[in-house]
Each structure stands twice: as C-alpha cells, then as structure tokens.
# Entry
Amino acid sequence: MSHTNLDPALTATEDALFRRDVLAFIQNHAPAAMNPASHAELRNLVMSYIYTSRNLEMARLLLSLHRNYGISTLIAAEHLTGATNTVNGVQSAPPITASPTTPAQNSGSDPANTPQRHMQSPRAMQFNSPPSQMRSPTGTSVYPSSPLDSSSPGQRQHTSPTGSNSSFGQTQNPLASRFNSPPDQMQARTTSFPNHPPSQLKRCFPPGLRMESDTPDRDLKWCYKCDECHHPIVHRSEFNRHARDAGRDGFRVVASNTTQRVWYGSDTPGNEYTGEMIPADERPPPPRHVGEPCQTRISQHNASKKREQASAKNKEGGN
# Structure
C-alpha cells in the first residue's frame, strides 16, 4: 500500500534516495562485517522508509534489508507487515543485488535492475574525487542529496548515524519533524548558507537524537575515531579541533553514546557526521601522522594559518 499523506513530489525524491542508499548499503556492508557504526547507519536508513511512497519497489527494498540484516528491531512491525503484504499482493520479492552495470527499468521493476549509473563509492561522492583515492567510511553515510547528481557538493546521509533530509531555511520538507532537539542545541544545524542549499547538506542523525553526551570532555576512558582518517583521538575538544582543521568549519561533537560506541557531530553550515567511539584500552598505537584525507587538509590549514600570521606580523612591522 502506498503512503499518500505526503506531497507526491517529495515522496518521489525520497523514493529515489531510499532506492539508491539501500543498494549502496547492501553493496558496501557485508552482514558479517557489521559494526556499531554501520548498524546505526542501517537503523537510520530503515527509518527513512517511512517517508517514501511505500510502493511495491520501496517494499521490496525494505524486505531486502530485512533478509540481509534482520531489521525487525529497527522499525515498527506494522511497516514490515505492510511491506510484506504489498509484495505478496503482486509476487514474492526477489533478492536485490547492487550492480553498477545493471540496465535501467521503470520504478515498478525489480530493484536489482534499477539505474546504477550515478552510484559511486561513498568517499568519492563526499569529496568529488576518484574512488581510488578515497578510504571507505567507518560509520558515516556520505551519499549525495540529489538523486540525479552524484557530484553535488553535499550529501544526504541516512543512517544513524541515520539520517534525514531535514528542512532548512524556507525549504519545506516533511522530514524536518524528525529532529526534536531544543532550538539552542540545533543552532549549528539550522544555519542556512547561500552556497549550501538545504537539500545538499549531509544528513546522518537518527530521528529524535538527543543532543547530549554520556562522557565528559576529558574522559580518558574513550577515544573518538575520525570517520575519515580513522585516527583515534582521546579528548573530545581535541577531536573537534582535528575535524575543523581538516576542513569542517565550526565542527563540534554534539552527542555521543558509549553503549552504541557512536559519536555525532555537526559543522556550521549544518552538515551532520557520525563515527565510532572506542575504549581507550582498545586504542591502537597512534601512528606518526594522521591518515588521509585529513593529513593533507590539516597541513594546508596549518600552512594557511602561518601565512596569515606572517602577513599580520609584517603589517604590524610596517606600522
């Protein structure tokens, strides 16, 4: 049964995003290799089904996630039952595989044959760079927000790390209600910038995420693992600085959960990020340098900062 309470144009967009993100998740996450971060991503992806049209294709996609990962604890039983009834009303749902070369079919076709020409590796999508130069993510979904343009600068991050395509500024989107945090805690995520359209901001927070941390800033029992370079960092404030130096303007960790071993962060434009937390006693020996892509960005940031300081010093000397 299709979901008709939302604007058809919006549900069509959600359908396209859900289709692409499900296929990408199945392609990039083997069931046996699931970890807390990817499980949180799966939870947010599953919840985004609610905002689709819930037609035959969407139902098949949801059931494919259920067959692969067992999602009965991640979504209300009525949605799984509804998806099963939708599929059984036509035919049994075939398994889905994600292949970048499968031919395009119409929206009611087997999801295994849906267009894949826009799918790239998540890291390539995030930085608009060749996939061979990017590391695979550890817990952050970085798929672009536009269902038709994988080179757009922003990403729509499902995952709980799971996300949503929330409403910013004057843009109307039914998913805005999925974030219930107080306004003062949402400031970093509600700022609208001309060069960061709301639809292009990356989304990865789970619905109803509480902006709170169960660890103090200087807690030495837990480390924050960077979602890009995978470098484990002990202090939250140190990790905030690491991410800002790596190109995330105004980044800060806004919530963390040691039970799920997940942190959530946001930057000034409103992009959302998530990654893994690890106990300090499981922290590997720190490498001599942080990994890519953060190392290059931090080096560029430091060089730019030194140039600015030198320029300011020269101006003072000239006066």
User: Anything to note?
Assistant: Confidence is low (pLDDT under 50) at residues 99-196. Residues 1-100+140-167 form one domain.
